[in-house]
Amino acid sequence: MEHKNKSLVWKRLTGQWIVDKKNQWSLIIYIFVITIFSSLGFQMTVTMAQTLAAGDNSGSSVMIISSVVGYLILFLSILLAFAISNYFVGPIYRIRMHMKQIQESGELKPVQIRKGDHFQNLADDFNEFLQFVEKKSQTGKK
Asked: What is the pTM of this model?
């Protein structure tokens, strides 16, 4: 019975939580990297603060350097988070704006997103759908 429950949990995990393996695993890895960098920067800053609070001034230059490095790592983590969020959200935003443009103009033009961005498969599927709609509308007019 317990073995059955473990396989059910695994099926739920992979079946309901992992729906787009390529994109989800990439995002999970990016989030993990950002978390590691942020934790490292935070830990360096806390260590420096604890050492200074204890009154140990013997390694003050090391503490200053670790503090600067810690804050730099935190700053870079924030920049990395913005870049990665644009990498994922940018294509979805572009497709949404393209859909609104189609609604306003009525012209079924294919959407284009930057090469190398995630969700290229979504843009390709959307363009195939537009071709399907255009073919259906042309056969309906005849």
From this structure: 0.55
